[in-house]
Amino acid sequence: MYHFAVVAFLALATLKVVDLLEEYVPGLARIHTLLTFGLAVAAVEALDYSLFRYYGISVRDHWMGPAATGLIIGSMTTAWRVLFGWLGSSELKAPGEHKPGRPRVAA
Q1: Containing structural domain, residue 48
Q2: What's the CA gap between 44 and 69, in Å, rounded?
Q3: Residue among 105, 84, 64 at smallest CA distance from 16
Q4: Residue ranges of the alpha helices (H) in 32-100?
Q5: What is the pLDDT of residues 33-47, one digit of tens each?
Q6: Is the dihedral of CA 55, 57, 62, 68 positive or negative?
Q7: Is residue 100 one of the residues assigned to a domain?
Q8: For residues 69 and 43, is the Cβ–Cβ distance under 8 A?
Q9: Is residue 97 part of a domain?
């Protein structure tokens, strides 16, 4: 149970770091998804944390556990973003919503 909380809070931390980077460097908003997953995988690799190891699930190679855990954490950032949007946070928008002032190319 604690490992799920670790993954959930690492996802929250990743979400906030990505939002901070996008605020200071607006051009990064174009590669939001790549930045989110890249930062999540890098953080998990730096921590050498594997969710699979703690649940006793064997993976073929050692590097696959942290890499897959990073992808799980990157995916959970979407759940946090939606939760904050549902709670009424004005800063975070749900995935797929366009920011005001940004022209839509396709209708």
Answers
A1: 2-87
A2: 7
A3: 84
A4: 32-47, 51-54, 64-87
A5: 999 999 999 999 999
A6: negative
A7: no
A8: no
A9: no
